[in-house]
Design goal:
Length: 424
């Protein structure tokens, strides 16, 4: 068991003059402050549950039709599903399956693979056999690859019917999708719009993007096919946002959000957070992919951070950390990075606060499920809004990690038998 400091709590853990109303009680305030117990994390009787969210922040979602990608509901009020796309060569089955496994472990819910040729299409049955994630086959132009993919058992086709060169071919693909009971994603990309639309609109405007999407949809609807979701991607936020807004007014199909070719981990994450954040905050979006020139696993973690920040999903640890300043008493930067890394395996929605000093520290730490606020000699630990005691700087990380893991285990026991993953 961990050895805890035997020093009784006094204000000296922070500065000599605590800030009234925040931080720790001053000596001439509550007498019990002087006798705050040294935290004993294994003390019996702690059956607390996470703090309830005091802020009622509920986004109205656009009403959309619901489709299913092998059990993952998309639209119709279902949690916004997180997708990614493999960047392996699909015919390299080992590499592709390995990457899909890593994506699944990170929380990816639907994965897409490119099917550029027959070699890739022939790999699909084995990939399907060895992976559990719903699989989308991404196909351009060649309707035969779509037929092969559907026969291979993929769970969704990404194909634009207007690009496969002929009504008969569209009919064949739609008939195959119906036979296999799989949806189709119409994916319009500003970089590959039809020439007549570019001419008419003077470029790849949001209106041109939307009209392209509506044309593809009409070809499916003409054949009685409605298991469709739509993406309208451009590489800049403004066009993407306007295009999705326009489409959201025109159809009730679920919308797959993304800022395509958005850039590196850093720039792409920022663009995606802004663009997808705007749309999601307006209730638009039923599934998303954060497109990054990076490891696809990064796409999943960034997607969840976007969704968590809008309280649309609650997966995993939410770390609240102050930016630190000249008052900081603990190494917030290092501690935050280490805690995020060490708690990446936790799925339970737990908020952890890492705060540098007494100014905002106790307030934020108190609102978190588990929080720490740096003090002059030691740090102060909070659980569920209660001061639990003091802790040596060197012990902060391992004890925060252990407490979060134990809380996650208790939450798992509490929710056993309750369906769903806690998403809102
Ligand atoms: S909590 Fe303290 S250390 Fe952190 S930014 Fe605020 S004043 Fe600075």
């Amino acid at each position: 068991m961990e050895e805890w400091s035997t020093q009784h709590f006094t204000d000296s853990v922070f500065h000599e003059k605590p800030v009234p109303g925040v931080g720790l009680s001053s000596r001439d305030q509550t007498p019990e402050a002087d006798s705050l117990p040294i935290w004993n994390p294994s003390a019996p009787g702690d059956d607390s549950v996470p703090c309830s969210d005091p802020v009622q922040f509920v986004l109205a979602r656009r009403k959309s039709r619901q489709i299913s990608v092998r059990g993952v509901k998309v639209g119709g009020g279902a949690p916004v599903a997180v997708q990614s796309m493999c960047n392996t060569l699909t015919h390299d089955i080992e590499a592709t399956v390995g990457q899909i496994d890593r994506l699944a472990e990170a929380g990816c819910e639907i994965v897409r693979v490119a099917v550029p040729d027959e070699r890739a299409a022939r790999a699909l049955p084995e990939i399907k056999r060895r992976t559990g994630l719903p699989l989308v086959a991404d196909i351009h132009f060649d309707y035969r690859l779509a037929l092969m993919a559907a026969d291979a058992g993929v769970d969704c086709l990404r194909i634009n019917p207007g690009n496969i060169n002929g009504e008969d071919r569209v009919s064949e693909v739609v008939a195959s999708a119906k036979d296999h009971g799989i949806p189709i994603r119409v994916g319009v990309n500003a970089g590959s719009l039809e020439k007549n639309l570019l001419d008419r609109y003077g470029g790849a405007t949001p209106q041109a993007i939307v009209e392209s999407g509506l044309r593809h949809i009409a070809m499916l609807e003409k054949r009685g096919f409605y298991e469709t979701k739509i993406s309208l991607k451009a590489s800049d936020v403004a066009r993407t946002v306007v295009a999705y807004r326009l489409m959201a007014e025109r159809v009730d199909y679920p919308l797959h959000l993304g800022i395509t070719e958005s850039g590196s981990l850093r720039t792409g994450s920022i663009k995606s957070a802004v663009g997808l954040g705007i749309l999601l905050s307006e209730g638009i979006g039923d599934t998303l992919r954060v497109s990054l020139a990076s490891d696809p696993v990064d796409e999943v973690s960034v997607a969840y951070e976007i969704l968590k920040s809008l309280r649309l999903r609650q997966k995993g640890v939410n770390v609240v950390a102050c930016p630190s300043c000249g008052r900081v008493q603990i190494d917030v930067d290092k501690l935050t990075l280490e805690i995020e890394k060490d708690l990446a395996h936790i799925d339970a929605p737990i908020t952890v606060a890492v705060m540098g000093c007494e100014v905002n520290g106790p307030g934020e730490a108190r609102e978190a499920d588990i929080g720490v606020a740096g003090g002059h000699k030691r740090a102060l630990i909070f659980m569920k809004g209660e001061k639990m005691g003091l802790i040596e700087y060197a012990d902060i990380k391992k004890n925060l990690v252990r407490e979060v893991e134990e809380l996650a285990a208790r939450m798992a026991v509490d929710s056993a038998g309750v369906p769903g993953d806690g998403d809102t």
